[in-house]
Amino acid sequence: MTITATIAPAEEPRPRTGRPITPVTPGKVALWLFLATEVMFFTGLIGSYIVFRAGSPRTGYSNAYSPATPLERLLDTEGVLIKSAGPNPAAVTEALHAHAGLTEAAAERVLEAVPHGMAGGFKKTRAEAVAARLKAAGAEVEIQPLAIHKWPAPYDPLTNPLAIDLTAFNTFVLICSSVTMALALQSIRDGKRLRCSLFLLATVAIGSLFLSIQVYEYYQLMVGHHYPIGISATGHFRPGSSLFASCFFTMTGFHGAHVTAGVIALSLIFIRSLFRGFSAENHAPVELVGLYWHFVDLVWIILFTIVYLM
Amino acid sequence: MNTTPNAAGHDFPHPPYIKVWAALALFTGIEYAYAYLARDFFGMLVIGLLFWAAFKAGLVGWFFMHLKFEGSWVYLLIIPACLLATILVIALYPDQAYKPEEFEPDRGEQSWQAPGSSALPLAAAPHGRAQG
Amino acid sequence: MHEPESHEGAPGVTAPGPESDPGHDHIHPAPGWFLTRYIFASDHKVIGIQFLFSGLIFFLVGGMLAMALRWQLAWPWKPMPILSRLLWAEPSLGYQMPPEFYNKLFTMHATIMIFFVIIPLLTGGFGNFLIPLMIGARDMAFPKLNMLSYWFMPPAMVLITYSFFVEGGSAEAGWTSYPPLAFARWATPGSLNGQTLWLLSLLFAGISSILGSINYITTIVMLRAPGMKLFRMPMTVWAMFITAILQAFALPVLTSALIMQTLDRVAGTNFFSPVGLTVANAPPVVGGGGPILYQHLFWFYSHPAVYVMILPAMGMVSDIIATFSRKPLFGYKPMVCAIAGIAGLGFIVWGHHMFQSGMNPALGATFMMSTMLIALPSAIKVFNWLGTMWGGRIQFTAAMLNAVGFVSMFIIGGLSGIFMAASPVDIHIHDTYFIVGHIHYVLFGGSTFAIFAAIHYWFPKIFGRMMNERLGMIHFFLTFIFFNGTFYLMHIVGMHGHPRRIADPTVYSYLQGAGVIGMNQFMTVNAFLLGFTQLIFVFNFLYSLAAGPKASENPWHANTLEWTTSSPPAHYNFERIPVVLHAPYEYSVPGVDEDFLPQTKPFPGGQRLEPAHS
Description:
The complex is a heterotrimer. Chain A is mainly α. Helix content of chain A is 59%, strand content 7%. Chain A is elongated. At the A-B interface, helix 2, helix 6 and helix 9 of A face helix 1, helix 2 and helix 3 of B.
């Protein structure tokens, strides 16, 4: 019988200097495959964002009109920025209604967005007149020429509602959760079960903190805070407000959904770790969930950069 | 790198996670500061931020996701995915990003400020958008 | 794409579960409880059969939708038997099919046939059943994940079926679901609710496919039996492997596009709406997005999906043709490379569906060139099939007949595809019946004949009984004739300018000639006959299932591993994990008594046909 002769002889793996190779398991192959599918999924979302942004008309966003207003004939207009309503906001609202041609609801929206309340779209002489009336009503105002943007600029409160400081902190939070995850894996590989459980718990907690901050951010954007006309016609930043809003909520929302899934998976892993579910020899789920968790962190690093900072 | 054999006798690599974490935090700070300082220079902003983001993503992948310690098979999955992602975005570019401009400004963007009432060269520009 | 082979038996590699000690251990008995054995089963064979049955049931549904379509095209606005009485008896409708209903018919026919019949049958059904058996594994790498991937399908099926009954009826924006028609809620009745259900249904089906493909790839990479090198895998496994890669990398992009469209519909996002779009007096949206972007994202998956629907068919047909020609497959490695080439090119040709969309002309030329290149690997495959049959002792069983039918019809479908690939020609025939003819030659003439071939070929292994050969042959010949009668003329009316997706072609004066009307009626008659012919198949399938003669282990004298175990295979597939000694196509080996040599049998006298290093 020549069976043994015809089977491929076991070959030594090629020696790789200084680069220890960890074992290949079906779980790891499948998880990396899954991550590849996730890369393609986020490519669909992030790639669309990139080309939408690159293809946005140079008048897509402005300080004085709602997003996607056709501005071709309005380029010589000016806006009146209300920095402070002064002692008598009702008078300012009334002045806006009476002299700026805004409906009462629109005038109230402008006031709600103070210190970035923008009443937009006046010819030069009219803008001066409106400004004078508003000053008379006690408001602190400034006439701003129309500033057009291809895309909402970071740090521009008149077109971009995103809170960069908060999110930078949130990025730091997610990075922290990544390192606790890595330490959890290292602990169980060293056979330290308790340390592993504690680090898993820390990861769950920090991941939940990230989610909480994101929920708070969403709440502020969609309900809690009022934004000037350049951000949203309705005063709230919601998925339908502009293409920027659609991209923002879809990308960060699906990232948040991935974080949520990760937190749930980590919680299950944590519970299992309490019941001596893992050991130095047997800890594949910890490694696999960890891989997923780091991937989610990696996606956030990219999202933070291209959505918030650019 | 320290490869300390653990209780089970496996040689699991122990990368310096804490140092990587410190580096990530530091570079997040740098990125944040850079984005603030370069906020008015779009080209510099994009190039710089992409560099920092790629660097940070690389750190996460290389150490936290253990790319450093995996066999080459992982790259058979990552490289095609990244390649396809790039191809897709590049192919989306001509249609979505190079739409015909609605109007051709003959001045720089900064000079839109209050041009006076008479000079309105753009008012006569064709109205309405090119089909998208 | 080619996973490193060096991990076989390498010390740094933990071989998975049962295979670490091949043969003896871990033979689990089948679960005894009915629910876990047949319904929530994790056995790949049961899951494959589940996919097979659900696919065949939806095949009947999709076929009936097609016949309703054909009725309207041949005799516009004439009352249809049965259906008219049931649905349109109201005086205002007067037994006439409303044009919106026609739109629903072609939308749902295509959706069901593509996403609920052909893809699940090929990858879900045969992929599940055959991959572990053909590579000598006890089950998939992740049986539970496999179960999950099947159980993502029923919600999809329920949603797509339910969508017929909601207000406004089912989706009617075509299976491509282009915006703005698809997302503007008041654009058509079907855009009201049916479209949302359609989107959700496809999302479920997509998740099912992604999970399945991850499982297939992992299984094929990690669980091959000892000696089953990559280039000893049967073509079916190769095709399933590459198909799974296609799905894994392309499908997520469709998922993202479907999600964006869903959000456009339910959350008011602006991804695919132009600025200020308003439809049917609905309030305008902010907009700013790009309708063409959806087309790009959609076709980035759906062109590879075309290969998802044909590559497994090619793989199975390769095995069937080699078996019944009693000859080694001609050019095994070129065949593998051709499949990989088709798949690789498949990722960069999607724009040829969009020549007429207003796409940037620079892209059009690029996509035309890459599309033309696909003719190359496709031709390699066709010539290799012919080369396999050439000089063979061909046994014309029902399976073989269907496989030969596949090859010949695929040639026609492939050639008409070149017309589409050339953008100047495509301008003339875009959105005409020419493309309808083309896709049916590829997907019915191609994939469906391959499915018939595969069912006839593997029925004994799946169910342990033989199908009736005579009925199978009658079914094949009638199907072949009526298929050509139905679809061939579509090329001609298409060249004549007959647009697709239009309820009444006679509104155009140039389509009022007796020729076009006559051809439409001829096609419809053939379509009905084609439909009724399938009853023969249904009868043969069900009768053989219940009372066909018991099948032996290896009724076709084939070489691949699934024929070395019992029919149907036990729960654990193989009593001992087989040891693979050579490539799967050693038919009519000189010096061997029989004309086949299973992969587990050594060559006589230590003779080797393949070089030692391969």
